[in-house]
C-alpha cells in the first residue's frame, strides 16, 4: 500500500480559496497511490483562532466539495485533514457550534466518514473554548486496512487509540498542526502510539507559521514495531511511503502484548 502525506504550507498571505485550489492540485498529483492525507485545519491554520468562526463552513461546504472532486479525479482514498465546521443550530439558537472536523473520502468522491476532534487544544483558551468536542470515535474500512482517525492534540491521549484498536484499527491516521517548539513530543508520541498499539501511524503536520506559531512539519510514518518508515523535513513536502498492512497482524501474532492487557483498571478517585 502507498500513502502520500501532504505536509501543506500555511502562511497568512494566502487566501482560503487559493489554499483549496493548491491542496486539490497536490491531491490530484498523487493519482496512483492508495491513500492521501492532508493536515489539520489547513484552510485557516490550526493556531489562527480568530479565523475559525469567519472561515467556518458546513460539513458539506466548499472544502468538502473541492476535496470530493480531487479524491475522485485522483482515484484515491483521501483523508482531507480537518476544517472548522459550523454545526447545525439548536432550536432557537442563531448559530450552531464549531467543531474541528476531519473529512475522509472514497476514491469515487463520497464522504466516507467524518470525525470531530475529541480533545481540544488550548486549556482555557483557543480551540478549547471556541470549538465543541466530538464524542464519537471513527474507523474507516479501506480495501487493505482499517484506518482509525484522530487529530493533533488527540495524540497525547493513549486511551483514544486503544478504543480505535478495539474497533479494529490497524493504521492510525493523524492530521495535525503541531508547533515546532514541541517537535520532540510529536515524534516520540507518534512512535509510542505505533509501538503500544502495534499499528501503523501516519501523522501529517503542516509547514509555515500560523498566527505567529512556527510549525514543526516533520510528518512521519511509523511501522507497528516503532520503526520510522519516512519522515519529512520542516517545509512543504509530500512524503510518500510504501507499507505492508499485513505487518500489523504479523507483529501482533509474533509479539502478542495486546493480548496481555488487563482491562477494568480505571477506579474512581477516593
Ligand atoms: N492543534 C493542536 O492540537 C496542537 C497540539 C499541541 O500543540 C500539543 O499537543 O502540543
TrEMBL record:
<dbReference type="InterPro" id="IPR001110">
    <property type="entry name" value="UPF0012_CS"/>
</dbReference>
<dbReference type="InterPro" id="IPR003010">
    <property type="entry name" value="C-N_Hydrolase"/>
</dbReference>
<dbReference type="InterPro" id="IPR036526">
    <property type="entry name" value="C-N_Hydrolase_sf"/>
</dbReference>
<dbReference type="GO" id="GO:0016787">
    <property type="term" value="F:hydrolase activity"/>
</dbReference>
<dbReference type="Pfam" id="PF00795">
    <property type="entry name" value="CN_hydrolase"/>
</dbReference>
<keyword id="KW-0378">Hydrolase</keyword>
<protein>
    <submittedName>
        <fullName>Carbon-nitrogen family hydrolase</fullName>
    </submittedName>
</protein>
<comment type="similarity">
    <text>Belongs to the carbon-nitrogen hydrolase superfamily. NIT1/NIT2 family.</text>
</comment>
<feature type="domain" description="CN hydrolase">
    <location>
        <begin position="1"/>
        <end position="245"/>
    </location>
</feature>
Amino acid at each position: 500500500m502507498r500513502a502520500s502525506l501532504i505536509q501543506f504550507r500555511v502562511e497568512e498571505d494566502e487566501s482560503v480559496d487559493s489554499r483549496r485550489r493548491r491542496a486539490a492540485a497536490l491531491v490530484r498529483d498523487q493519482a496512483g497511490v492508495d491513500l492521501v492525507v492532508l493536515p489539520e485545519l489547513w484552510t485557516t491554520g490550526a493556531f489562527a483562532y480568530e479565523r475559525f468562526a469567519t472561515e467556518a463552513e458546513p460539513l458539506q461546504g466548499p472544502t468538502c466539495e473541492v476535496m470530493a472532486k480531487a479524491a475522485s479525479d485522483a482515484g484515491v482514498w483521501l483523508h482531507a485533514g480537518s476544517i472548522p465546521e459550523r454545526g447545525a443550530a439548536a432550536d432557537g439558537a442563531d448559530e450552531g457550534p464549531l467543531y474541528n472536523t476531519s473529512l475522509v473520502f472514497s476514491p469515487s468522491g463520497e464522504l466516507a466518514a467524518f470525525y470531530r476532534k475529541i480533545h481540544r487544544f488550548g486549556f482555557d483558551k483557543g480551540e478549547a473554548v471556541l470549538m465543541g468536542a466530538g464524542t464519537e470515535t471513527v474507523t474507516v474500512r479501506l480495501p487493505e486496512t482499517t484506518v482509525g482517525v484522530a487529530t493533533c492534540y488527540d495524540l497525547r491521549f493513549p486511551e483514544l487509540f486503544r478504543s480505535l484498536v478495539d474497533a479494529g484499527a490497524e493504521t492510525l491516521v493523524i492530521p495535525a498542526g503541531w508547533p515546532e517548539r514541541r517537535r520532540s513530543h510529536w515524534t516520540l508520541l507518534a512512535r509510542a502510539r505505533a509501538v503500544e498499539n502495534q499499528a501503523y501511524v501516519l501523522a501529517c503536520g503542516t509547514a509555515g507559521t500560523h498566527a505567529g506559531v512556527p510549525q514543526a512539519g516533520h510528518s512521519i510514518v511509523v511501522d507497528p514495531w516503532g520503526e520510522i518508515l519516512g519522515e519529512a523535513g520542516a517545509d512543504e513536502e509530500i512524503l510518500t511511503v510504501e507499507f505492508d498492512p499485513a505487518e500489523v497482524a504479523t507483529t501482533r501474532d509474533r509479539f502478542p502484548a495486546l493480548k496481555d492487557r488487563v482491562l477494568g483498571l480505571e477506579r474512581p478517585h477516593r
